[in-house]
Amino acid sequence: MQEEKKLTEQESLALIASMISKAKNSYIESGIGPLSWGILITFCSLFAYFEYLLKWSINFDIWLLSLFALVPQIYYSWRSKKQRGFTAHEEIIMDYVWSTFAICMFLLSFYNNMVHPSHSIALTLILFGIPTFITGGIRNFKPMVIGGIICWLCSLGSLFVKSPNSLLLMALSSIAAWLVPGIILRRRYLKLKHV
Amino acid sequence: MFKELDPILHSQLRLAVMSLLIGVKEADFTFIREKTNATAGNLSVQVQKLKEAGYIDVVKQFKDNYPQTTCKITPKGIEAFEAYVQALQQYLKMGA
Description:
The complex is a heterodimer.
Chain A: H1 9-25, H2 32-53, H3 64-84, E1 86-87, H4 89-115, H5 120-138, H6 142-158, H7 163-193
Helix pairs in contact in A: 2-3, 2-7, 4-5, 5-6, 5-7, 6-7
Chain B: H1 12-22, E1 26-28, H2 29-36, H3 40-52, E2 56-63, E3 66-73, H4 75-95
Antiparallel strand pairs in B: 1-3, 2-3
């Protein structure tokens, strides 16, 4: 690109549109985050369900896996930001939304352990739906918007089913909110990467 | 009465840099160079001109022992960019 080339009005507008589009297309979600969370939460929900159903225990709280999974996820997110070379406007909002979710989940786990509410999964699923719905809306990604709504419907549904079965609704929410959108994003990312 | 096009922005590389920066919160010098296909020398000079005009902020720092230059559009830069686009639209309407 030449340093001082004067442009016509049409050329200027075309250049502006092309650079804005380049900036926009530089941000491609790899899908690793939602995919790994989707797999993990689905696995934990189903594991807890069968543990309860088969009256069998491994003497380890399977939900602790979600805390261990946070470390590689934070590292991967930091590394991809560094490699990308820019920060998108909506990333700041996303960081706040998902940090709020992580803090609320942490507080909710304390609340559940102390109060032992009869419908703790309903509360958890309400929380699952919030960041998923916002992310889908801001990124204009319908599968996550639908995923968020499914979480809230499952939250309502969990009020009408007995305790271990609500874990199945949690697995369904996780599949709808993160696993399926994660697979779609991952496939899109790999396709664009090879173009 | 038509607004005069801002001479700082009415240049290919500077306009490309500003258009790129308007779409992101901040960007590395390397990222801007890749997207504009400019040489490092050219880009440095134009980035400096934008900085002197107060349209962008440039932060130079060391990250993992490598120098890193980050550019970010300023409120004055956003205002100038918007005025430039409005002026362009006026010219195009007149030409239509």
